[in-house]
Amino acid sequence: MTADENNAVQVDLAGFERDGFVIIDDVLPPALFEAAKQACEEAVEKGRKGEWPHRRIVGKAFPPWPAAGPDIWGIQHLMHPDLGLPLFKQIYTNPKLLSTACAILGVQSPESLQLELFNLLINPHTTPFSLPYHRDTIPAATPADEEAKLLTRPRTGTQYNLALYDDACLIVVPGSHRRPKTSEEAEALSKDDKTPLKDEIKVILKPNQAVFYENDILHRAEYNTLQRVTLHGSLGMEGQVERARMVLQHGVDYLKSESFTDGLDDTGKKMWSNLMEGYGKSDQVAQIHAD
Ligand SMILES: O=C(O)CCC(=O)C(=O)O
Description:
Radius of gyration: 18 Å
Strand order of the largest sheet: 1-9-6-11-4-3-2
Oligomer: single chain
Bound molecules: 2-oxoglutaric acid
Number of strands: 11
Largest sheet: 7 strands, antiparallel
Number of helices: 8
CATH superfamily: q2cbj1_9rhob like domain
Distance between the termini: 38 Å
Order of helices and strands: HEHEEHHEEHEEHEEEEHH
């Protein structure tokens, strides 16, 4: 991957289509990368102390999360004004992240993107945890013919994990974003939804590498207590009502206030208004996973 002076990124789109994910190197410029580590340290400390209430709680894989639990595996809503860390708006709108999303989504300009979620995935302190195999927008029990149909929907968004330290938590089945579960996979997962699947791989990220991946690829994750500090963002194409529905399952009312745009650059402001357009057209708040 190379980047020219305008931050345009050459993304291996053929690899992305084939595998359902692609790795991008050297995402943040060095000074921003260091500042990101500092901001994440503050966010993690607030989350661990319970001073920040929006956390992914160990024991529960999907939102909504309870107020408390044995440990945490994520910090939610990094751009929330009450967290007091406006640097996360600058990171979320980083030109290399946005131009990678543009390449994947086939849109000309970041101003055609929709601002979505920005969270942090971290290691639990004391309590190892793991996520079951899932597709983000298709419930596990969906019959294969329906699953096949849903997987042909046009791509309207993308998501990434940007590692600030070494990360080997995410496990994916390459190519599974384009096909329903095989009968062997369905049978194995019906007995144990964390069972190793044929051809699964661990996505290994070095600091400042990001993996962009299809959110409906078959994926799971394993969290031990080794340090993990990985930014987890999603971006949509403007005007996507279905994606507004997915964003809304995370309870992001703070995004609706005009004051949210303080500290965003012009591109970020446009991306925010694109999201508001989608909200305006969606009255559904859905919980996709039963858990
Ligand atoms: O921890 C990860 O890398 C994956 C998280 C995930 O699968 C999810 O949030 O749906």
